[in-house]
Specification:
With 250 residues, the chain is mainly beta. Helices cover 13% and strands 42% of the residues. The chain starts with a helix and ends with a strand.
């Protein structure tokens, strides 16, 4: 049986067929592969169970508070170490519903490319401040600020509880396909939910610089972002993520 909201959305699309429904941008981007994550071994699981069931240790006697260290934020990346490249660029996404699509960006984020033992062995780390979401950056609308606020709310990113989104690669391998040169695999965390994903990217590495570009789609519901939208204007599940980065070697 077709659910009522879906039936209404389809009817709405049919009624507006003369104008046409908004195309789904996620259909034009390669979909990220979501990998099954390995369950802990039996011994590890038992160890975790014992840890959870162990009585709570009594707090130790209070000690003098150590000097506070300066914390690193998305706006203040720490200085690069040898083999580390501090990245600049942009992080954005495109979401859509039946009648429109919206492009938004994150204005505060930091990224690092880390060279391994071999020249082609690199890792990528990205941290995003989701409270910095900023929609329609090329041409702000009168309702853009309201959309920013809605995306920060519990309906979407729930930024008060999950202020950070992160990606940390586990593998960057050369694999050419079309304009893309590599496949990046790693842990993507949104709204506190982590998925092991892989996606294609175009990466160029020289003696002086590292540059990269990737565009791929994810299913927002994989990360517990399930707000449906209006019954006659449903929000699509596919979201296109875009990352452009570059940095100079130390």
């Amino acid at each position: 049986m077709i659910r009522t909201p879906l039936l209404i959305a389809c009817s709405f699309c049919l009624l507006t067929s003369l104008l046409g429904c908004t195309p789904d941008p996620s259909k034009d981007a390669p979909a990220a592969t979501v990998h099954a994550q390995k369950a802990p071994a039996q011994g590890e699981a038992e160890s975790e169970t014992k840890k959870e069931s162990a009585p709570e240790a009594k707090p130790a006697a209070p000690q003098a508070e150590p000097a506070k260290k300066k914390t690193t934020t998305a706006q203040e990346p720490s200085p690069a170490q040898p083999g580390h490249v501090i990245l600049g660029g942009s992080v954005s996404f495109v979401g859509s519903k039946v009648t429109a699509s919206q492009e938004c960006m994150f204005r505060a984020w930091n990224g690092t490319a880390i060279q391994g033992d071999k020249p082609d062995d690199w890792a990528l780390k990205i941290e995003i401040d989701v409270t910095s979401v900023f929609c329609n950056p090329k041409e702000r609308k009168e309702w853009s600020a309201k959309l920013d606020k809605h995306l920060r709310s519990e309906d979407f990113f729930h930024a008060t509880k999950y202020p950070k989104a992160t990606f940390e690669s586990t593998e960057v391998r050369a694999e050419a396909e079309g304009d893309n040169t590599h496949v990046i695999k790693g842990n993507l965390t949104l709204r506190g939910k982590t998925k092991l994903v892989s996606f294609p990217a175009k990466i160029q590495i020289s003696e002086q610089r590292v540059t990269g570009k990737t565009e791929f789609s994810i299913n927002r519901k994989d990360f517990d972002i399930v707000f449906p939208g209006k019954a006659d204007d449903l929000i699509r599940d596919g979201v296109v993520l875009k990352l452009q980065f570059s940095g100079s070697r130390v």
